[in-house]
Specification:
Blueprint (H helix, E strand, L loop, with lengths): L2 H13 L3 H8 E8 L10 E3 L1 H14 E13 L5 E12 L5 E12 L2 E8 L10
Length: about 130
């Protein structure tokens, strides 16, 4: 699969709420996932499909996701990377509902996502100001 093929499939699956299916079909066993920030419960950098599966399960166990809007993908011809913009409406367990815009940069090799990096604007986060 080309980078464009992977990008289009990822966005289509995310729009259908099939994030776990995207993980199982489009991600490399050696995926590297880097969040915009980490914490004691979830490190910023994770390596390997099993670790990313665990991160995904942790996210859904600790957040009530109300809605996710996906924009993109944004692709440069001939590049092995693409961007996707997510708007996430979520309530963390024990926290307040918030809207989180987030950009994700994906790198593709051999038809699989080998790296994902997430970026956020600190001004958009709760308590910013």
């Amino acid at each position: 699969m080309t980078t464009n093929d992977v990008a289009q499939q990822l966005v289509a699956l995310c729009r259908e709420g099939k994030n776990r299916e995207a993980l199982e079909t489009l991600y490399s066993e050696n995926i590297v996932s880097i969040e915009g920030a980490g914490g004691p419960e979830m490190p910023q950098r994770m390596e390997g499909l099993e670790a990313v599966r665990g991160k995904t399960e942790w996210w859904y166990a600790n957040h009530e996701v109300h809605e996710v809007t996906t924009e993109g993908p944004y692709i440069a011809e001939g590049d092995d990377r693409f961007l996707v913009k997510f708007w996430i409406d979520v309530t963390p367990t024990g926290g307040e509902r918030m809207q989180m815009p987030e950009m994700a940069l994906y790198t593709v090799a051999d038809g699989k996502i080998v790296e994902e990096r997430f970026y956020f604007n600190p001004a958009d986060m709760p308590g910013a100001g």
